[in-house]
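Pair request: fold both.
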Amino acid sequence: MHTGKPILVNGKPLGSGRFPTICTPLVGRTRTQVLAEVALVVAKQPDLLEWRVDFFEEIGNVASVVALAGEIRQAAGGIPVLFTRRSVKEGGEPIPLNEEQVVALITAVCASRTVQLVDFEMNNDPVHIGQVRAASQAHGIGLVLSFHNFQSTPSQEVLCQRFAQAQQLGADVAKIAVMPQRLEDVLSVLGATLESSQKLDIALVSMSMGGYGSLTRLFGWAFGSAMSFVVGAGTSAPGQVPIEDMNTVLEVLQKSMATKN
């Protein structure tokens, strides 16, 4: 029971229609580490892998990134891949690339068709967003436009505006991740997700981070969030829970919510 729209890859819902999509990050710094993570995570059967390329020490070498993206896809055994460069200002790792070079890297990965989704931050230059949108559309890659705040949680109204902004900018998926300072902030995220899922036409992903935020990761899907990031091997943000725990909670909650009174 949820109001959300599923994330689509090639016109079909991720995870054979399971809601929410379960995504595990890959955060290795070397090719060997990344492929070892893939081998470990694939056995746990997530619906999606997110390669956080800002952790990769060879991010400055486009050929190395494209080659490893291809190896990840081959090793993933059919599990789709989300390609993400998270900026430092939104919680990512420092990298030796400027924004024009990041756009060129994402464009090359899209052209290689080694991934199924790419993430780009909606606070980026509108020209760069347009270039990434054009590259993803040209090669049939889904675009996630994201917003992160590791210090606080904006109001429910502002969060709804962010979701709407992503749709206006041409996103296939809108993602918001914010840091709660109190339990009321968690309610703001859930409320914005529910409200926006009833108004917008695209899939939404939302989460609070940290201890309080783990609540949204466990049952945000009931309010319309189409994906939850979980720990398969390494963590990419505070508050992520192990995939085994997530599967258990989903089974219990979804079974209970399906029970007729």
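--- second member of the pair ---
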Amino acid sequence: MTEGRCYPPRPVLAVSAAIFRGGKVLLVRRAHPPGQGLLTLPGGAVEAGETLRQALIRETREETGLSIAPVALAGHREVIARDPADRVERHFVILAFAARWLAGEPMPSAEVDQCHWLDPAEVATLETTEGLAEIVAAALAQLGKKPDQAPG
């Protein structure tokens, strides 16, 4: 769904998932603008009638093929891009969630061209979307000392 994402009349609500498995976090590389070539978390726009949890599970499955268990909100980011005439070309409000891996192996898709399980401490040294290291740290804190423990 891309309707209303360029020059939107209001911000677009989106979700992303900081997914942990074996002490590593999953980062994906965006295949298309905005954010093309940057490492980030899988996610996307919330569709009408869809809960945040449903959107998070759907977007993760579409982008990576993984099944996940959302745990808690880890933070948010706003992405506002303006065109040369200073008009708002894109405006996303992204709610980032901590999540645990349940099943599957990450596979690239039409939206992401690479998937990597990385040590959370590495994130700050990489070319990522703005504020990603802070979101990953907050997500890890939400999961506590046992990030790989299955939800109870």
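Observation on the second member. The radius of gyration is 15 Å.
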